[in-house]
User: Fold this.
Amino acid sequence: MQFKDIVGQRDVINRLTEIIDSGRVSHAQLVLGPTDGGSLQLALAYLQYLGCEHRVHFDGDDLRADSCGECPHCKKMASLMHPDLHFVFPNAATAKVDKNYWSGDFMAEFREFLLEHKALGTLDEWYAHLGVENKQGMIRELDAAHIVGDLGLKSYEGGWKMMVIWMPEKMNAAAANELLKTLEEPTPQTLLMLVGESDERLLPTIRSRVQTVRLKAESAGRSGENQAEFAGLLVEWLRMLFKLKMRELADEVEKLAAMGREQQKQFLGYTLEVMRDCFLKNTAGLPCNIGSGDEKFDAMFPNMVTTNNIELINSALNEALFAVERNANAKIALMQLSFSMSKALKKR
Ligand SMILES: [Zn+2]
Assistant:
C-alpha cells in the first residue's frame, strides 16, 4: 500500500512522513477512523514507507513523500508477506479451528480479505469473509500472548518488527492488560500499530501510551449501502407497532432476530438516526428523508416523534443496542423494544 492509493487525508499523511523522515517514530501508534475511510490503508502505507529503501520526495502541494513501491521491502509489504509484519484482529471459532484459536489461525483468510478489499473492508465484511456473521469476534488472551511473543523474536530482516492490531476496541480485558505490559516495556525496534474506529472502549492507560492519529471525515462513502434495506424493514416494523397485532409483530421480530448481531446493531443504529432526524424535522423543520419508498409514510411518520417521547424512544433503542452487544437473546430484546416503542409512540 502506498500513500498515493489513499483517498484524501493529505495533511495527515504529510505530517506522518515528516515525522518518519526526522527519525522520531513512536513505537506505539493508534490510527483512528472508519476502516472503509482508509484507516487500515494508512497504517499499511505508513509501515511500507517506514522500511522503504528508496523513499520518494515530491515537490508540490499534494503528497510530500511516498514509498517507492519497487524495493524488496515495498514488494513484501504490498503482498502482506513481509516476515516482520504481524497481524492481530478480532476472530471467532469456526469449524476448522480447535478451541485454542487465535488470529494466526486465520492469517491466510485475513490476508485474502485485505487484498480483496484493498484494506477497506469493514468488520462486518471480515466476519462475513470468515463465515461467522452471527458471532461477535474478539481479540483474546491468546492473541495478546502472540503479540508479546512475536515482538520478542529477533527481526528476520534486521529492521522494524511491525505488529498491526486491527480493531483494538474488540480486545477483552485480559488481552488489554497484556497489551498494556508490552506498551509499558517496549522491546527495541518494535512498532505497535493499533488501527481502530473508536478509542472509547480502550483503557485510558493504553490511550495515554500511544500516539494517536485521527483520520479526517472524508470516507470513501460506502456507509449507506444497507440504507434501503433497513428503511424497508423499519417501515414494516413501525406499521406492526401501530397495529400491535401480536402474531404479526412476533413474525416481524422473528425476521429482525434472524439478521445476525452485527446487522441488528447496524439496524438499531440506523433507527436511532432516523428517529433523531424525524424529531428534528418535527421540531426544527429540518429536512428528513426516511427513504422508505412510501411518500405518504415518509411525510407522516416524523409527526410521531416529539418532545414528549423522543427520550423514551432513545432509551428504548439504546437499551436494545446494549442488550444485543452483550449477546442477550435477540428475540427477547427486540420484543421488549417493540413494546417500549409502541408505548412511546402513543405518548406523542
Ligand atoms: Zn520501497
In short: The longest helix spans residues 261-284.
